[in-house]
Description:
This protein is an alpha/beta fold. The chain has 3 domains: 35-222, Rossmann fold, CATH 3.40.50.300; 227-303, Helicase, Ruva Protein, domain 3 (Orthogonal Bundle), CATH 1.10.8; 307-405, no CATH class. 41% of the residues lie in helices and 16% in strands. The protein is built from 15 helices and 12 strands. The protein has a 5-stranded parallel beta sheet with strand order 2-3-4-1-5. A 3-stranded antiparallel beta sheet has the order 6-7-8, with no helix packed on it. Strands 9-10 form a two-stranded antiparallel ribbon. It is elongated, with a radius of gyration of 24 Å.
Amino acid sequence: xxxxxxxxxxxxxxxxxxxxxxxxxxxxxxxxxxxxxxxxxxxxxxxxxxxxxxxxxxxxxxxxxxxxxxxxxxxxxxxxxxxxxxxxxxxxxxxxxxxxxxxxxxxxxxxxxxxxxxxxxxxxxxxxxxxxxxxxxxxxxxxxxxxxxxxxxxxxxxxxxxxxxxxxxxxxxxxxxxxxxxxxxxxxxxxxxxxxxxxxxxxxxxxxxxxxxxxxxxxxxxxxxxxxxxxxxxxxxxxxxxxxxxxxxxxxxxxxxxxxxxxxxxxxxxxxxxxxxxxxxxxxxxxxxxxxxxxxxxxxxxxxxxxxxxxxxxxxxxxxxxxxxxxxxxxxxxxxxxxxxxxxxxxxxxxxxxxxxxxxxxxxxxxxxxxxxxxxxxxxxxxxxxxxxxxxxxxxxxxxxxxxxx
Length: 406
């Protein structure tokens, strides 16, 4: 067996490299139960028993575990043979609706016999086939909402799991989709759960814009920061998957003090914690250290340059240039540019900055991810200051300086 250096810790490799829960096949193995999970379980069990219906929202910042909660429900539904649809929201809701319908059709094709599909298909099945033909061109929110909810009702217990609602960027398109959700919430029967995830700010603004939809959300859960015990459990669970040796301390080579320091640096954010742990254990492996304690963790963090990613506007190319800004530097005048090309300084307007929503007609921008080099078009609006790379294998996230685009 080829030694990787991690074998000194009884590990086959770095257990923290996979930061994204979307890529974890067994997400429930790595999940750390928090207080809100107990409340979600009560709601979910009522759905399983078809005793109630519900629409709930999972809210929080990037990397706190919103997607993980939706995937947990999807996995449990799958294991019980229940109907479930999980979808990441795209910039245009027509594509999200199309993919939701596609998954419903796929699931129905597995459950319905060939003879039944061809000669006596249920009405809900015929309706989803009908709207699928036209939904990518244009869709009627009322019609789509009724077709989807009918399919959910007929297949209860059923789960509609919509991830990252904040990816929606066009107000008119967003309003149409909220109307779809409105119809689903109004017409759901016991045994149907609609579960949404979103950034807090985006969701709050959306509910202010649509107060009637806000009334139909039964519960809103904000994912809390990890405490030190939860952080330790997350670290231990990740390492358990890579353990080569039994009867070893779950946290080894980390001490509790090291975990507390890493969790403090991560502000209790699960994704940041795993990224920091990956850096720490990599460095400790290179140094051939046997234990990672508090002083060691502080020293490695001090040596490692913890930098924040930011996004700035390049006038010359009418494009977005990614820059790295040291955490301690807040002024845009002191940014470090990751590109070799010099960015021309942007003169600020003499008057007060325009409101974010008035961005001189800019609809989209071309972006090159600094981590995976993927070039893509990003839709800009008042609610999309945060930009993420669409590459599922890349975890880049940056913030757009809207003022620079005005």
